[in-house]
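Final report, Chapter 2: Outcomes

The project's central promise was a pipeline that accepts a single protein chain and returns its three-dimensional structure in a standardized token representation, suitable for archiving and comparison. That pipeline is now operational. To close this chapter, we reproduce one record exactly as it appears in the project archive, with the input sequence first and the structure output second.
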Amino acid sequence: MTELSATSLTAVSDDGFSKIYTIDSSVASGVETGDTVSVVATTSGTTATAESVRETTGDDQGPPDGGIPPGQ
């Protein structure tokens, strides 16, 4: 996560993809700028809203329970 404020966070993936997510303070509790995070979000139009943000090691990224990501 490269940026964190009271209303948004910016995450950049290993391949350089960057996304700004709207948040509320409870969603990003316990994480800070510089952490490696996993974000679960919904999108409406051009706005992505983080529903869940958690710190991760990077090794545990991917869909829950080994499922296939949406659209795959």
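Archive annotation: Residues 3-59 form one domain.
This record, like all others produced under the grant, will remain available to the consortium after the project formally closes.
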